[in-house]
Design goal:
The structure holds 2 protein chains of 2 kinds. Chain A is mainly beta. Chain A contains no helices and 8 strands. Chain A has a single domain, classed as Immunoglobulin-like, CATH 2.60.40. The radius of gyration of chain A is 15 Å and the shape is elongated. Chain B is an alpha/beta fold. In chain B, 43% of the residues lie in helices and 18% in strands. In chain B, helix 10 runs antiparallel to helix 11 and helix 21 crosses helix 24. Strand 5 of chain A pairs antiparallel with strand 4 of chain B.
């Protein structure tokens, strides 16, 4: 298993017993990432593929990181798997979850 | 993954290894590498294969010049740099094995398979891992001055995996490519840890040594400072105890020498005064060195030291005979001089001055006299000397002042009665800096040189015990007063026979010895020597002859160096091969002299020479034209010759209209050489008579002599040289002034027998002897 090329930044916040993990994951197709959980850990991994290119391009510079990403987020509680759901909008992934 | 996906752009890198999990900046400049990066960026995932070159000096490596294990890396960042290269930030993703490299595109592409990193576990791995981390901490302490000093433990804490630690350490240590590649290619974690353990040990050892060396250097510096402090303290203590510093010891040595040196009273007084002054001066002062040098001169000068006189006239004669061939008259004269000196050492006889052409043996005569007298010999060349201070020294107030040549010579010889040879007194110059000839007068005058005053010495030094001998090529340029103080001894040139004898006795053996061969190995017969003298040299002395003999000996010595054993005798016919074509041809008699041409003899600095005087009649011209760089005296004697002939036209049977209606032109070749003196008078007169009477001059007769308006023939100088020149040219009749008959005694017997001398006192006798009446 190769190591990830990058780790997306994430915000974690909660409100009235509900926890939210918001992740900046622009340019990623829903098929290209997956969310898993185990105990108090939340694992988000996937790939950002550069689909806006053709063979005639010549890069002048590059700063966006593509390829495989992976992020393990430790929460202060054991996750209730059944409560976990997510929404991806405007390049942001928002995961909702609750304490088991 | 299918095989197509396993084809990625390949980026060869130099002098580093990119490990999986490690992030590394990289600058890429090679066109093929830039193309590889650009193509990698056109893929969805922006990855490429990075592999290290085995030899970093290769610009376009082939597959076998690359390691086969590399890393698949993600391009996290890329920017163009100003010099057409690109900057990358790479992160190693996984270890790969390169199966095949595709060289067909403008960039390299690699077919690869992933080689997962080992994951073996054991207690030994755990132990080694801890040991490596321990070593890393140790290393970090040693490296505290480097940029990663202090942060290494932090870096290591950021990961847990042993292999990641090893990879991280690889980028910190000074490892070479092979060592890093070994880690990358490791088949087990154990092996990687073992390697790293070894590398770290080595690194710690080296760093430890480095620090030891640095500490030692620092210790040396403080040691020097300590010694300096101690010395200063010692000086203070010595002062306190009244002991001597090195300078004081130096002065003490000088004082002891001074006491032993037996200086005359005035010199002693000055020396003591200077010594007092020296003691008060700090040793760093410039004056200290100057005063010290002056005191040394005072001490070293031989105020009272002389060599014992050894004046055995017989022995002196033997030495002169052994060193010089013939020159009987000169040797007699020298012996006379020495005899007087022996009878009364107090008489201050005249200074001997040898005058003669180059190479006639003036300088070596001086050396022989020194040997005969048992004196030290010192030669001072005065040629081109034009500053009085060279002889008399500079006053000590000038920077770089030195004693004059005379005092220096005496100091060098270490006795106050050496024989000093003043070479080339005729070539003294003089300019605004003074006239060295005037200084010489003081030096050479026995009445004055008892108290010779050198400006540097600033004390009188007694030169009266010094035996001065001077040499000159000519007397004309020597100032009259100086000439008066010297006794002139002329060394005229040598005859051919004498030269052969000198060559056989001195020159040939000397040259053969010079090439370190036994004398009998090279034989040069008389006829060869004669040929060399006639056709390869033209001189009064034997200097050029010696040079030619040296050339012959040198060329012959080559054969001996090549292993020849039996002696060589030089043959006449070999000469052209050895010395080249003849340099000089003997002045050939002009076979038929036309009317108006007569043969004269000239005296030059290099000996004698034969010259032809030509005159022609210019119809409808007038007056007398003289050409050939003639001096005033020579022109006047030409006019005198003309006037005498014209005045006696009737008696000589010359028709008056002949010179009433025509001019005359007299020319003396060679036109470029200046000529002067009255001795061509008879020759010019003979030339004119021959022209007017239309009778030829005899072609075997040379002549010399000054004339007066009444037709008298007066004596001239340089007879010996002129006779030798005529003989060289094959002229066997010579017309000479009667008053010169005494000079013929100087000639060797064979010359006197060979040549017919016609001694004349009047021009009419000259005409009778010279004009061919047939």
């Amino acid at each position: 298993m190769s190591i990830p090329g990058w780790e997306p930044p994430a915000d974690i916040f909660h409100s009235g017993g509900k926890w939210f993990v918001k992740m900046e994951l622009a340019g990623i197709y829903p098929d290209d990432f997956s969310i898993a959980h185990s105990g108090n850990k939340l694992l988000i991994h996937g790939r950002r593929k550069d689909r806006i290119h053709n063979k005639n391009l010549l890069y002048h510079s590059m700063e966006i990181i593509y390829s495989r990403f992976e992020r393990v987020i430790e929460l202060p509680f054991v996750i209730d798997g059944s409560s976990l759901c997510w929404v991806y909008r405007d390049g942001m992934l928002l995961i909702k979850l609750e304490q088991a | 993954m299918n095989s197509n996906e396993n084809l990625l752009p390949l980026l060869p890198i130099k002098e580093m290894v990119l490990f999986p999990h490690m992030q590394h900046p990289l600058v890429v400049g090679r066109p093929r590498s830039i193309a590889a990066v650009e193509n990698a960026l056109l893929s969805e995932e922006k990855t490429l294969i990075v592999v290290t070159q085995k030899d970093s000096s290769i610009e376009n490596p082939q597959q076998e010049e690359l390691y086969s294990i590399g890393t698949r890396a993600l391009v996290r960042k890329m920017e163009r740099l100003p010099n057409n290269s690109i900057g990358l930030s790479l992160r190693g993703l996984e270890r790969v094995k390169i199966k095949n490299v595709d060289f067909t595109e403008e960039y390299l592409q690699a077919n690869f398979s992933v080689v997962p990193l080992p994951t073996d576990e054991s207690d030994e791995i755990e132990a080694l891992h801890r040991q490596v981390l321990e070593q890393a901490t140790q290393l970090d302490a040693l490296m505290s001055d480097r940029w990663f000093g202090g942060i290494l433990p932090q870096l290591l804490q950021s990961v847990e995996e042993p292999l990641d630690h090893v990879f991280l350490l690889c980028s910190v240590l000074n490892l070479d490519v092979k060592q890093q590649q070994d880690i990358l290619e490791t088949s087990s974690r154990l092996q990687a840890l073992k390697l790293m353990h070894e590398y770290l040990n080595h690194e710690i050892l080296i760093l430890g040594m480095q620090q030891d060396i640095a500490k030692q250097a620092a210790a040396n510096v403080t040691q020097e400072q300590r010694q300096y402090m101690l010395r200063r303290q010692l000086e203070e203590i010595q002062k306190e105890l009244g002991e001597k510093t090195p300078e004081q010891a130096e002065i003490e040595i000088l004082r002891n020498k001074l006491n032993e040196a037996k200086l005359p009273a005035p010199a002693k007084k000055v020396a003591n005064k200077e010594l007092e002054r020296l003691q008060r001066l700090p040793s760093a002062a410039q004056d200290y060195q100057l005063t010290y040098a002056y005191l040394e001169l005072l001490i070293e000068l031989p105020w009272k030291k002389s060599t014992k006189h050894k004046l055995d006239l017989n022995e002196a004669r033997q030495i002169l005979d052994a060193d010089h061939f013939d020159l009987e008259k000169i040797k007699d004269r020298i012996i006379e001089h020495l005899a007087i000196y022996k009878l009364n050492p107090k008489t201050r006889g005249a200074i001997l001055c040898f005058v003669g052409g180059p190479g006639v043996g003036k300088t070596s005569l001086g050396a022989s006299i020194a040997k005969a007298l048992g004196r030290e010999f010192e030669r001072i060349s005065l040629g081109g000397l034009h500053d009085e201070a060279e002889l008399r020294g500079h006053r000590r107030t000038y920077i770089g002042a030195m004693p004059g040549r005379i005092i220096q010579a005496i100091r060098r010889r270490g006795v106050n009665n050496p024989l000093i040879m003043l070479d080339e007194v005729d070539k003294l110059g003089h300019d605004y800096r003074g006239d060295p000839a005037a200084a010489l007068m003081e030096i050479l005058d026995p009445a004055q040189n008892v108290n010779f005053h050198d400006n540097y010495l600033d004390l009188d030094f007694d030169l009266s015990k010094v035996f001065f001998v001077a040499t000159a090529n000519t007397l004309e340029t020597i100032p009259r007063p100086l000439l008066d103080r010297m006794e002139i001894i002329r060394l005229s040139g040598y005859t051919e026979e004498e030269k052969i004898e000198i060559a056989k006795r001195y020159l040939v053996p000397r040259q053969i010895k010079d090439v370190n061969l036994p004398v009998e190995k090279i034989g040069i017969p008389d006829d060869v020597l004669q040929e060399v003298i006639r056709h390869y040299t033209r001189e009064a002395g034997v200097r050029e002859l010696e040079r030619q003999i040296a050339a012959i000996v040198r060329k012959t010595a080559v054969e001996f160096a090549d292993g020849r054993k039996e002696p060589v005798t030089i043959q006449l016919n070999q000469l052209a091969n050895i010395l080249g074509a003849e340099r000089f041809s003997v002045e050939k008699m002009r076979q038929n002299l036309s009317t108006g041409v007569s043969i004269g003899l000239a005296w030059t600095e290099a000996g004698g020479d034969v010259l032809f005087i030509e005159s022609v009649l210019i119809p409808n011209g007038s007056g007398l034209t003289l050409t050939g760089q003639l001096g005033d005296v020579m022109k006047e004697s030409a006019q005198a010759a003309q006037s005498y002939i014209w005045s006696r036209a009737d008696a000589l049977g010359i028709p008056a209209e002949k010179f009433n209606n025509s001019g005359f032109h007299i020319h003396v070749p060679a036109g470029a050489i200046p000529k002067d003196g009255p001795s061509a008078g008879v020759t010019i007169a003979t030339s004119l008579i021959s022209l007017i009477t239309e009778k030829r001059v005899r072609n075997d007769t040379a002549m010399t002599g000054e004339i007066t308006l009444s037709g008298l023939v007066l004596p001239v100088g340089g007879i010996k040289e002129k006779v030798l020149a005529a003989r060289r040219a094959g002229l066997l009749r010579i017309i000479l002034p009667k008053a010169n008959s005494k000079d013929l005694d100087e000639l060797a017997d064979e010359v006197r027998q060979e040549i017919e001398f016609i001694l004349v006192s009047h021009l009419d006798e000259v005409f009778a002897a010279a004009i061919d009446n047939q």
